[in-house]
Amino acid sequence: MVLHKKGDKLYAGVREELSLHLLSVRQRVVDALDAKSPVLQVVLEAWNDNKVAMNMIKDILMYMDRVFVTQKGLDPVYTLGLHLFRDNVAKFEQIKHSLIETMLAMVAAERAGEIIDRYASITLSVTFYLVLFFSFLYSLLYFGGVI
Fold it and tell me: pTM value?
């Protein structure tokens, strides 16, 4: 499609499909929260699934990233997927509130001397921030744009 000057249609379609998929992911996370599942594990699993899917999609759309995305100054596909996850899932009010409450409860529990699952809490918070930071640097260095 990029070769036939339809890169904008492809990019918009990818954005739309990712957004629709992430809405269903968000609903699964909210349903898991309603079922009293551990919020960190649910969000971490959704985040890891999203990263794997975005790597595959990025590999498939590599030519579009090199040509169309660079010319138009858009976010690379991988970065787009991470940002859409952040905006559609992690920033959703119910999920964000549950994550913050869970993290604060874990800090309070650790201060009280209880043993907590550091893997889930540290992995989730550090991964979110590092990936978003490095996606910003990647975009800045290779595409000359600011996210």
Answer: 0.75
